[in-house]
Amino acid sequence: MSGITDLDVLLQNMEPQIREGEFVFCTDKSQDYELVARLKPIASFLEDEGMTLVLEKHVAQQHGYQFDSVFKAITLTVHSSLDAVGLTAAVANKLTDKGISANVIAAYYHDHVFVQLDKAEQAVAALKEFQIRNTH
């Protein structure tokens, strides 16, 4: 099933939804994939310096992982194609205009934006402006 590639269609149809939980970005240098599987990260990425894990905050704390910030995850509930051009830039620019950091992860079906814990509602409101702009 192919995702949507048209930027205007993506922006008009996305429904940003805040995911339950609080999330942190941390790293694990052990490359112990069995441990990583038990941690149930919602995202991971292997970098030269170690494996980046996006974990629920309480899981990271239970396992002694260090982290700098706490985030809420916002799912852009529109099936975006991995070949779509401009969605990440549009979202990042919109949030930049509001002074909100955007850490975007593209998955197969949706894009997910991690924003500062205390700015999640403001971020959703900003992203919904795309729908308002496109209906007028």
TrEMBL record:
Q: Which residues form the CASTOR ACT domain?
A: 74-129
Q: Which SUPFAM superfamilies match?
A: ACT-like
Per the record, the domain of life is: Bacteria
Q: Which InterPro entries match?
A: ACT-like_dom_sf (IPR045865), CASTOR_ACT_dom (IPR027795), DUF2241 (IPR018717)
Domain DUF2241 span(s) in chain numbering: 2-72
Q: Name one Pfam family in it.
A: ACT_3
Classification via PANTHER family: BLR5128 PROTEIN
Q: This protein is called what?
A: Transporter
Specify the species: Photobacterium proteolyticum
